[in-house]
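Ticket #4471: complex job returned nothing on first submit. Input attached below:
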Amino acid sequence: MTKYTDQGKQDTRSGYGAGMTELGRTNPNVVALCADLVGSLKIETFIKESPERFFQTGIAEANMMGIAAGLTIGGKIPFASTFANFATGRVYDQIRQSIAYSDKNVKICASHAGLTLGEDGATHQILEDIGLMKMLPGMTVINPCDFNQTKAATIAIAEHHGPVYLRFGRPKVANFTPVDQTFEIGKALMLSEGTDVTILATGHLVWQALLAAESLENQGISAEVINIHTIKPLDDKAILDSVKKTGCVVTAEEHNYLGGLGESVARVLATHHPTPQEFVATQDTFGESGTPEQLMEKYGLNNKAIEAAVLKVLKRK
Amino acid sequence: MPNTQELQDLVVQVRRDILRMVHKVNSGHPGGSLGCTEFLVALYNEVMDLKDGFDMDGIGEDLFFLSNGHISPVFYSVLARRGYFPIEELNTFRLIDSRLQGHPTTHEGLPGVRVASGSLGQGMSVAIGAALAKKLNGDDHLVFSLHGDGELQEGQNWEAIMYAAGNKVDNLIATVDRNGQQIDGATKDVLPLGDVGEKFKVFGWDVLEIENGNDLEQVIAGLNEAKSRTGKGKPVCIVMKTEMGNGVDFMMHTHAWHGKAPSDEQLATALEQNPETLGDY
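Support reply: We reran it on our side without changes. The output follows.
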């Protein structure tokens, strides 16, 4: 299989911050909003270099989403950022009416998504956000896998007209995709070709999928690993091409199995090419406090869980 | 600029439009629409500096956001009669395949509408964003918004009210339609709003009142006074007292016509009280 090297662990939210720094320097229409979480979102450099293009809304996310919608009227490209929980569930109707239905060019940028937020616990660990956002007509949903890809995605969505949900996280994780890559929205990335099983992973689970594939290779199982960084629009063709070859699939995501990547994939397969599928995802549950590693282990969201799901789905072929 | 009689004729004609639109589809919100007729007629035909035609960004002109989207009939009539789209299109209000949805939307590309509204409490935030964009663009035009008084029960307004004052959004004029009514009854009975003007004041806004929002000259004077207070470090709020259902005697002094259409007989009576001036659509 194709080998990847961890260039040094970094948090994906810092990738967002780095992308914003670059956009601040290159695109005068980009403006940033934040609801009292500037430090957590890593946008200090953008603010320092372009203070007139930053809007601190305080702890008032509903107002932030509305202001972001209004800023587009006049040609601005607002990046509204906060924790994923407050960027989606808390303000769903504001996003639905003022942004999505109104076709506003707002980028909703959400950090601390999923269990890996860690010790703060379930109040902050949203595992439903992908579902909430992908159900909105016209919304693009992106969940990049590492620092470099999050930076590239941040830069890419500024060039895309329309509302986008960009989801990333808190912990430092392997940074293994190329520096200064070009990010193409909706284009799944083949990371490693294989013949026995397809692993479709998104976000933090992509690196775990590569670790699982390496272990499976040692057991004589050839796994194809694809990075589904864009959940909507989904790259149906890449998925179908792969499963037609391998005959079974495992989806892996840091999200509830209801509403996430797995369900989107299941819809494509059920419609075009029914295929055995196993879901690595949380099982309709809230999270809890703990370290990110402990939580990913307990809730079955790591390389071992992916490996077990592969062994299970292979028996169903 | 039209003279007062021409504007008054337009007010009556818009009232006829509202009544006929709502009657035709036996649904919609005539009460608040009739109450805000003078305001919207004055705004679009006397007060706002508007370009010809419509583009979404609205750079170089004043902007208006209707937060209480359920009064779409008056908004649509005023937009059509200001030339944003053909007057005949008022015939399609709330019908299938129409650009005139029950609540205003950008989704069908109706000229004059810049954001969807209907789910209440969101318009002030959007207006603030548009006002901030004007400042960034060096555009010294103003942003106007209209809000129902009952709508202030939505918490997002108070986030927006706090933000606008704290950030000196002084190119914004937000008007509250203080008709004292909402669907379930009088605002004082459903959830008392207290002294709306005082609340805006203590949040840091410059506040003025229009004592009779159904007196065209008072509305124009109030809006012009509000314009003169912009650019001085504070957002401007107009508390405008209106009578829901104004212009139709049996629709006034009650919340009953908030979201109810008149029958054939009631329509005939209402239209008699508002005789045709500029021609029905």
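The domain at 189-314 of chain A is CATH 3.40.50.920 (Rossmann fold). Closing as resolved unless it happens again.
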